[in-house]
Specification:
Largest sheet: 5 strands, mixed
Strand order of the largest sheet: 4-10-9-6-7
Mean pLDDT: 87
Structural class: mainly beta
Low-confidence stretches: none
Distance between the termini: 95 Å
Number of strands: 10
Length: 155
Amino acid sequence: TGSQLYFAAIEGTHPVSGTVSNSSMGFVGLAEPSLSVSKTTSTPVILTGDAASFTITLNNNGDLPLTLTATDPESDPACVSNLPAMLAAGEQASYACTSGPKTADFTTTLTVTGTYTLGDETGQLVETSTLNIDVINPALTILNHGPATQSVRGG
């Protein structure tokens, strides 16, 4: 948490005492909201029809609680619905989710918005994490272009 040193001085004239003055200084804490989002996978390459697995990690490295919302159009709804509603200051959360079955390469982007309140003011932090997943369709074709052969037994 950062802080700022403030100094205030005042001077005035009193009808009996003449000039009067006073000063004061003090530190005022500054709010430092912070959010980091990481989406990782152990399945960067999948077979067609399979699902990709993800781990989502969220960190509130700031000093204010955050209310969270998220979008992730290419993944299973669990990648969004498992998101905690709130992260306290300094809190970390992780959870797993999967995509639905895929038949083509895709890019998945998790966008998380953390909303904080400080007094009467609100603010937002928006963080994203993007992964590219390769979907492969391996196939094997065996062709025999040689002459037909015949086996003869015994003799």
